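Appendix B, example 12.
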Amino acid sequence: MSGIYLHIPFCRQACSYCDFYFVTRTGYRDQFVKRLIEEVESYQDTKYTEEPVRSIYFGGGTPSLLNAGALDRIMRALRKTFLLETEEITLEMNPDDVSRAYLGDLLDVGITRSSMGVQSFKPELLEFMNRAHNREEALACLELLKSTGFHTFTADLIYGNPGQSLQGLQEDLETLISFDPPHVSAYSLTVEPKTKLGRQVELGRIQPPEDEVVSDHYDLVVERLAEAGIPQYEVSNYSKPGHEAVHNSSYWRHENYLGLGPAAHSFWWDEDGAVRWSNKSDLKAYLGEEMSAMRQQKEQLTKLQLAEERLMLGLRTREGILKKELVNRYNYSLNERQQDYIDQKVDEGKFMAGNDRLRLSVEGRKIADSILLDIITMH
């Protein structure tokens, strides 16, 4: 089974923290949709269409800037070109784009899951992030999602913001929990160098919170959502049972996926390991160049690279990773030093005890990247 990711690059304005590829010029939307459909059709009769597609994800950017007619045309092209056996079709949306009629149209098109960027309900934080929506629009959108017939949806929050208090985060969590969301994605604010936020931090105008403060924020998110019946299943993702994100889980399990649209990445297994490639992060080039010229050089990934990547992704999840998967799929076995280190982390409460599965505790997942780095440098 494989997945398809479609990158819709349009945004109304630039969020201060975002380093994804986007453009604020929306006049190219019709041209873009036509070109995206051409890219979909370019995969006709290739090996990539032989494998059933389990999930489709419209990301961005802001996919909800496309109307339902455009989304319907894209979906028709996907159905015509690929073997769709979808368990989930997700569309990211911003609260200011949403109406009851639009949500109804999305359901008619075949969208089954909404991913909404709330980030915060605090006006001052929304202004700091330069979000296009306000608190009232976020509340109205959540109300609509609850009443329109979406079986599942996710809402994003960002914590660890400069000046954000524990009490303020608690209030954001309580507001969100009052809507009984099936899924929550909660991210620690990351300062990326080429963003507005990154430049302000570099100039000393903004001071990011101390690590201890961010750690306290993380603990609060984990504990409060668990109390509400939305336990953590990946470092940044929380779900009621049965509402885990199918598409994102396929990334973490190293399943095949195609990325369509500017800046989109693809990953596909082959006889030597796996190959990763991406489209250029350039809308004008995407609209004007030959499709083959848009696809940047493929990177051949070795079994060792893949094993280390799988460890990184797997250790971030509640289910972890089976040792026999590392051996059978990646030809990767833990050595004595690595096993001793893991045993030590079990004693510290960071790893879960067990002979067949590598799995971090909730406390361990807080420092998953650090633990992974220790493990792979011992190989």
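Residues 279 and 294 are 5 Å apart (CA to CA). Residues 303-379 form a domain with the Arc Repressor Mutant, subunit A fold (CATH 1.10.10).
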